[in-house]
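Feature request disguised as a bug report, sorry. It would help if multi-protein outputs had a clear separator. Right now it looks like this:
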Amino acid sequence: MHVSSFRASHWLVATCLAVSLQLTACGGEDSNRSSSTARAPAQGTPTDTPTGNAPPTPAAPSDEVNLTWPQAYQRDADYPGTANLPQQLITLRDGIRLAATVTLPADENGNPAVGPFPVIATFTGYNQFYSAGAFADTALVQRGYAYITVDMRGTGASEGSWQAFSQIDHDDIAELVQYIKMQPWSNGSIAMNGASYMGITGLLAGATADPAVKAIFAVVPMGDAYRDVVFSGGQVNAGFIPLWVTLVTGLSLIPTPVGFDNNDPGYSLTTLLQHLQGALLDFQLPVVAGAVIGDENKFDTEFWRIRSPLEKVDQIRAPTFVVGGLHDIFQRGEPLIYEGLKDHTNAKLLIGPWTHLQGSFGEGLPADGVPDLASIRLAWFDHYLKGMDTGAEDYPPVTQFYKGAERYQTAADWPHPEAHAQTFYLHGKPLLPQLGTITQQPPAASYQTSLLQTPLNGLCSASASQWTAGVLGMITPPCAEQDNVVNLLEAVYTSAPLTEPMVINGPITGQIWASTTAFDTNVTVRISRVDENGIARPLTHGIQMASMSANDPERARYLDDTLIQPWHPYSEASQRPITPLEPFLADVEVLPTSAVIAAGERLRVSVGASDLPHGISPLPDLLASLLGALTIYSTPTLPSRVNIPLVPVAEAQ
């Protein structure tokens, strides 16, 4: 089987690539948050109708910060062609060999040019042999770069057992950086490039602090494995993780001709057996089975922390461009990566209206003056590896797509420097408590709404599309574009039509007072904008297991003395018992977004007990929550509410 036989399936391979990603860790993301002790939430200005933007306008950003994108950067190719060197096996410190492909600039006849060149590197878990063309960017190679693609340990054509961003992977990455620096085709300057898995390994390469790593372009990377994706809200991710593990494992079990190319006919069989052992005994099966049965790794342990780029982001000195998506599986972590980088290196953040698959390719760009990802990447690498004046250093710090306004807008920072917190209270109705209202006034009367704790709600929602990396959204697009169906099994609270636009920017907290007839429950919060036709357009959402909802105020984020991003320890010590029928407060972390709700439209908050496949409780916790009813309170003493960061309308125009 040869690489060329797979070129026709490039789109399928690329799709599978973006449907994958990873596991990994937590902690570290609080370094730029304002610490505070627990405080009562600010109540805002009493009024019956939310108006959106009222407080004083803060000082304008510094004139030194550029907020305008320049014209897309372009330059002619330096070489007419590219050429792949013979397949390489890189021997590591313990004798394990990693498979690598090196692509060099070439003349019109395919003869490799004489280097050395600055090097662009991609470290993948998706079998670079069967994805040839999906990693090595020939446009970059023709502009004077060498490109190396390496299968990480235990994946693709490389030997060993896959451990998914373990310390062994960290050590392998550091060794690969050293290897690249010493090759005759390398001038010692390296840039890391890639989406998803490859974006994460790019950040880990930067975290080696090796000065050879001059630049990083990380597209849809994970920040915190536990909180971002694997156990979001203390729940097992039943959507993305099975897809991802199956993809990595499947691509690692396909035989490759690497051994024959290196005069080692037994290489493929040996590698296959090592990969099988890793899948069945060392990593994939044990970790997935442990998550289902709720072993010790259902808590935020060192197992997850070692795998998190946010744990090492303070060690990255290379200028880093981060690309994220408003519906990406790493929606939470991408702005936190930028936030952890911005104080000690030149960091940029671009967030589009994307799921994971869409974000991997920067779908829809160029738009609103924002160039396409290819031209941004070329400018980034040319500036930092070749010293060319491309303007990349002065790109706007933050660029975000605003849903509702349907356009990109730049900002001086994230969190947005002009954001303020506003609290919106959930109110029941006398006859229809499940169809409540939202105002900025605390409740004066007492209402409660009860829901059946079914674990199945959420399959027809934007959330289901997001947590399958966009796959379900392609299969059932109507479900991805509205929340009306999923709202049928939730308590729904809708404001009166807004008198002026409301512009949301940042993370949101749902502070929900509830009780259950069972011994545990999930609490979900969805934020939507309801258009004039009554369609609830999804903006963002969050999920939280009640027993795991303890908040650490020293690591949480507060704005105007109001909690807008809780920080849950997810430790065995922080787990709290839930007593049937006894009210509890769940601080639900709702993932950050940027959106405009126009005048005449309405804000909607819906509260439920399930968000499948985003999360499902480990088996012991699931059994504790079955056959229960969730009651949501709206009373003067138990005021359920959401805290939303708002910015002036002009920021989204």
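(second protein starts here, but nothing in the output says so)
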Amino acid sequence: MRSQAINIYEQDPVFSPDPTWTLAEPRLLLVDDEPRLLASLKELLDGQGYHLTTARNGAEAVAELGESHFDVVLLDIGMPDMSGHDVMDVINARGITTEVIVLSGHTGIEAAIGAINRQAYGYLRKPYRTDELLALVRNALEKRRLHIENRNLFARLEQSEKMYRFLIDSSPDIIYTLDQSGRFTYINRRVTELLGFDRDALIGADYAALVHDDDLDRARYVFNERRVGERASRNVELRLKCNEPASSERHFETSLRTISFNSIGLYASDKAPSVEYLGTYGIARDVTEKRRAEELITYQAYHDILTDLPNRALFHDRLELALLQARRKEQQLALMFIDLDRFKIINDSLGHLKGDELLRQVATRLRSCIRKGDTLARLGGDEFVALLPDLEKRTDATVVAEKFLEALGAPFVIDGSELHISASIGIAVFPEDGENDDELVRHADMAMYAVKSDGKNGFGFYDRSLLDAAHEKVLLEQELRRALQRGELEMYYQPQVDTAAGNVVAVEALMRWNHPRLGLLTPGRFLPLAEEMGLMVMLSDWMVDAVCADMQRLQRDGYRDLRFCINLSPTCLGRDEFFRKLWRTLEERKVAAEQLEVEITENICIRNPDLAIRQLNRLTELGVRIAIDDFGTGYSSLAYLQRFEVDTLKIDQSFVREIGQEGGHFPVVLAVISIARGLGMDLVAEGVETERQVRYLQQAGCRVMQGFLFHRPMPVRQLQSVLAGQASARQADVPLQEAG
């Protein structure tokens, strides 16, 4: 029996554009419960450029339709679990957009009618001809493509129309038309919202009813515009009147086009139409807030938001202008770099809100100290600069600097609390200290840092030596980075002597730099620089390995009870990797951890005691001893000290140096000794240089001392000689000083 094909078309309602349609590879779902027929159908369609998916029954077909999109479904009617009609009912119920071609073995008309009623695209009775099936699939895909394109186009047109109506009805601009006499023939409701005029009352009124009197001359060109295209008036600003007394004048940016109308039936004529001027069409946009915003943005672009002072950009503009005038008039000008002292501590302890309020008050006080033609600016953070043009002599800048310091010296009151702050001020004068803005700022900054180094709370002028020192610092930075690779670092050791027994019980490890140009440098010359450069971790790792290597060497010589004391940066103690490296180094060098003593300053413990406890406990777990260096020079707290597992207290040399006369009383030294005794700690006095100091410390109960009176720092080879001499003297029962 010849197969029968039925095409069924339906009209879908308007819908949004369908993004799922692709021409590259249409997706087909093949559904049949007969495996051989399903395989044959797939083989037939394979290679036609389709993406094929198969389903062995109705339930699988519904599952596939729920998970994926298909352009055409080739559906068998007679399936036992769920018929093809049932599958089409699910498709229609769920609103699935696809074309269904029914493949049926039924000869009755009921199956075809059921397919038609369920909006199937086509119907083929089995067996069907291959060309009929392929043609029907192509037609279904073509129909789907055209249908989707049509409804997408229709949806876009409808959307465009809705958007156009919305824009006209909800335009933020005043849209109007005028006749040849300049009377309104149309105006939208925005005129009421912005200006307070009744739009109906304006129809037929002259445009002059809205225009500010001072702008009427310019308005004639706008509201009587006859030009078209690019020559028409655009972006002309006019001030329009407001009908409400409380309303302020508003500025409008007006774009105009002239509309030329043709007479009725003109387009049906072959002759050129005559043009008759009918009026003007325009759009007026309110730019009042825009102008205010532009003014605000411009102001903020050149001013500091926090203090309302000129910012870096405006300051440099004024500095360049002042330099031009100074060159032309052959005058001097001064640039002052002002940096607040200890502001970070106040900011961190009280919070950024109070810190910002302090900066605002500082700006107010500094502004009150300058002349009208001077410029005070904030560069950022707690850094301010002052530009003083028209100086008669260099020293005139000192008057302003003294005013600044005096103004900042008075207490600041913030939230009922008094705060005290000072400043360091660096001064550079044109033309002696710099020919351009960059040199003046840089040299004033260098002078400010010199003041900070000298104790802060003062001012100073730039000097050529500051530049030389800066160049030397930069050069030293570069050389320090190469010092490790070149083997220029070396460990020196200063012995700690038990004055009662007369022997060396410990040594303090001190780093030295054998600089090829500057000679032997002590830690004070390069360790602060290394701290700034972030090299302390690398230097500390090298120091630990070098000290442990020397410990191993002396241990082989028989000095197994000698302690080695090393100073560690807080940066190292905060790193987990440091503790692992320290443990590995002790293991590799085969030295006892008890022979190593780590010296830390008391400020590390007081600043964050909980963190310090954890760090010191980790050292104790390794077996390393702990010493507090420079005890008494910082913010000592006995409550915190009791919580730390500390083995040794060191009396700072600043207290030892005060012991200068017989019979004197030095309570701080006595207090430190008493604390060490009470807590069961060892005690070391450092910086001992006289016999008087030795006698006083011995009488007070301190036996172990360190200083130039006994030994200066020495390399490990010299230390070996000292220890060997000590051993020989002990065997001969000779005092240590005589043996030395």
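Even a blank line would do. Unrelated, but nice: The longest strand covers residues 503-515.
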